[in-house]
Design a protein that fits this description.
Length: about 400
């Protein structure tokens, strides 16, 4: 009995805790969910196709064997470089083979047919992405290395799309039918997210400085912004329609520059309003974190108030302020999707068109770029925050 217990303990000790969860998720995607979805046209119900029926049998067997090997690497306590390489290889092979499934399942006599990645593909992609992210964290990559890794991933996705490997998949067909609109809405989405961030930064940092310098008004301003933050996004967009419509009708020149009850104006105003609280509160928190000794030393050197603010306080508070900016940018990239409901443009236009037409791949055409932009923004700004913190530590 003791020998059995020791054997079980030894076996459990060879398993990676996160790897057990990731392996279980990947196995569900591999054996219990369809690898691809086949439709007679873009809006009818899909028929699930398991992996071994989505491509020639020999390729399916090879793919299953490869994925099982990767799952074994992730499941066991293996070297981090091997885990990272295996996860990246699995993601790359999955991306190539789901494109292969599109070519295999697409009928020659039905140009309206559609083939999409199925739940199994997305579940396995999610599982192996977790394994890849975990390996990157374990490697403790430098900020610059993480940005380089991100650029390499973007380049790999670009090569995949340029190669035509996904040309038979429905999401690419949706893109081909809307290529001009896709890039136009993409520019609007970027303008909404970054424009509202820029306005919130210009307004929020001075307001944060005011709150820090004047404690009596701090609670009032932060409480007001907290109340604003609790209003649901769709409700706030709706509340802005009437006043902006009135301004567009009555103020000379307002309509000519795009101010109206629906469209770009209420969308960017709402995003600006949601952006203020993180910027203001992080500015206050950053200034609060400046050591008292640093202020005393600066005053002892004869620095004036503006010199103290711009040469000592703001540089030392910058990492915390940048963290607030990171929160705002990732938040706004997601919230800008809602602008599609009120004619504000952006990738949300495709999301809500797809929902209205029950066209899943049109929804994905709008949603996947948003997810990618949010991840990229988070990785880049996290790296910049870490770099700024290291510079703060080195500052004499």
């Amino acid at each position: 009995m003791s020998a059995i217990t020791e054997t079980e303990t030894s076996a459990a000790g060879r398993l990676d805790k996160l790897g057990v969860i990731v392996a279980a998720i990947a196995l569900v995607g591999l054996f219990l969910q369809p690898f691809a979805l086949s439709r007679a046209n873009r809006i009818v119900s899909a028929e699930g196709v398991m992996l071994w029926a989505a491509m020639p049998l020999a390729q399916a067997i090879a793919l299953v064997a490869f994925l099982m090997a990767v799952i074994a690497v992730i499941l066991l306590k293996t070297p981090v470089n091997l885990r990272l390489s295996a996860a990246i290889a699995a993601i790359a092979v999955l991306a190539l083979m789901v494109g292969r499934a599109g070519y295999y399942l697409m009928p020659d006599d039905n140009p309206y047919a559609r083939v999409s990645p199925g739940g199994g593909f997305w579940i396995m992609l999610f599982a192996f992405s977790i394994a890849m992210a975990d390996a990157i964290v374990r490697k403790q990559l430098s900020p610059l290395a993480r940005i380089i890794f991100l650029l390499a991933a973007i380049a790999a996705i670009g090569v995949l799309l340029w190669s035509g490997a996904w040309n038979e998949l429905s999401i690419i067909k949706e893109y081909e039918n809307r290529a001009d609109a896709f890039w136009r809405e993409g520019r609007i989405h970027v303008a909404l997210a970054f424009g509202s961030l820029a306005a919130a930064t210009v307004v929020g940092i001075p307001v944060g400085i005011l709150c820090f310098r004047t404690p009596p008004v701090r609670a009032s301003i932060l409480n007001a912004l907290n109340v604003l933050q609790t209003i649901p996004s769709i409700a706030l967009f709706g509340l802005l329609i009437a006043p902006l419509a009135w301004i567009g009708r009555t103020v000379p020149g307002a309509a000519e520059i795009g101010i109206a009850g629906i469209g770009f104006a209420p969308a960017i105003v709402a995003l600006f309003a949601y952006s203020l609280l993180p910027v203001v509160s992080n500015t206050v928190a950053g200034l609060d974190s400046v050591p008292r000794d640093a202020r005393d030393a600066a005053r002892g050197m004869g620095m004036t108030g503006p010199q103290l603010l711009f040469q000592i306080e703001l540089p030392l508070a910058f990492p915390v302020i940048l963290t607030g900016i990171r929160i705002v940018l990732v938040q706004n990239i997601g919230l800008a999707v809602i602008a599609g409901l009120i004619g504000g443009g952006g990738f949300g236009t495709f999301v809500f068109q797809g929902i209205g037409q029950t066209a899943t791949d049109l929804v994905l055409l709008g949603a996947l770029p948003v997810v990618g932009m949010a991840f990229a923004a988070a990785i880049i700004l996290d790296a910049l925050v870490e770099i700024s913190q290291k510079k703060k530590v080195r500052r004499p």
